[in-house]
Amino acid sequence: MRQPDQAEMERLLKGVDIPPCPAVLTRLQKESASPDASLSVIATIIGSDVALSASVLKVANSAAFGLNRKVSSVQQALPVMGMRAISSLVAGIVLRNTLSGGSAPRMDRFWETTTLVAQLCARLTKEFRGVPADFAYTFGLFHDCGIAVLMRRFPDYRETLQIANNAENESFTAIEDKRHATNHAVLGYLLTR
Hints:
Number of domains: 2
Number of strands: 0
Shape: globular
Strand content: under 5%
Structural class: mainly alpha
Low-confidence stretches: none
């Protein structure tokens, strides 16, 4: 199996426009650089962040790895990619974040909420059988990823969130459509597709 080089990795990551949580990225960078790095620890760290998960899934499902079927979770993707590709991926994300400077909006609540929803979805698989826990976790992690894209694209999107959260007679996505000519559900679909 061929491993993508750094330039190809950057090309694959170009469409992922969600910044990773800085604290998670620091933990991941530290674990990846460790001589005793563990894929299961790395999977746990990556799985706690929607941006990192999106990056890993996008790279693992790319033509560079030539898989017969799509992987649908970080746990499935990491053995396919291996430590070298993971390290390149982390380096590319760190570099991209460093070059973008402090222009990204603070999204602490977004990162916390996506992780909590993902954990809840995984726990629900114990009650509702038939869906693998890692698949449910991934679904929960990505369910509102379009919000992060809108926050980066529109400086007034926080105001839109407040209006939509307080609206009683209009749907959340209708308010987003009115103010930004798109909504988080459409963008989330396009990103996860």
